[in-house]
Amino acid sequence: MIGEREFRWLPHDGRRHAIPDRLDVGDEGQTLCGVRLTVPRRAGWKSSAGLWPTCADCDCAWREREGISRFPQSSSGSSRRRTAVIEEGA
């Protein structure tokens, strides 16, 4: 069905991880990067510094399964912009 995804994102252990969409509250499962977890009733979507950073391993595995290019895509323009943002936030 169009619009349905096999995975969804869940904050866990300091990062946003991809978990199978079929998991419900209280279910035990595994993230795409291999972390075992039990789906909580409520997830804290914000850390003290803002939104949880995305787990790079889950992101890479998710993109591969969805047929999406890896992020960030390598190009001179995006590399310069990312460096500038990091320096401004430091």
Keywords:
2 helices, Zinc finger protein, 24% strand, two-stranded antiparallel ribbon, Zf-HC3, alpha+beta, 90 residues, disordered C terminus, 6 strands, two-stranded antiparallel sheet, globular
How are the SSEs placed, and which strands pair?
Layout: E1 7-12, E2 15-20, E3 28-30, E4 36-38, E5 46-47, E6 50-51, H1 56-66, H2 76-89
Residue windows where pLDDT falls under 50 for at least 5 positions = 75-90
Order of helices and strands: EEEEEEHH
**Averaging pLDDT over every residue, what do you get?**
76
Number of domains: 1
Strand content: 15-25%
- Tally of separate helices: 2
The strands making up the biggest β-sheet line up spatially as: 1-2
Radius of gyration: 15 Å
How does the major sheet shape up? Answer: 2 strands, antiparallel
- The CA-CA distance between the termini, in Å, is 43 Å
The assembly state of the depicted protein chains is single chain
Approximate helicity band: 25-40%
Shape verdict = globular
Number of strands: 6
Which class do the helix and strand fractions yield?
alpha+beta
InterPro entries: Zf-HC3
Biased composition (Low complexity): 69-78
Region (Disordered): 69-90
Organism: Actinosynnema mirum (strain ATCC 29888 / DSM 43827 / JCM 3225 / NBRC 14064 / NCIMB 13271 / NRRL B-12336 / IMRU 3971 / 101)
Explain this structure:
The chain is an alpha+beta fold. The chain has one domain (about 5-90). The protein has two helices and six strands. A hairpin with a 2-residue loop joins strand 1 (about 5-10) and strand 2 (about 15-20). The longest helix is centred in the last third of the chain and has 14 residues, at about 75-90. It is globular and about 30 Å long.
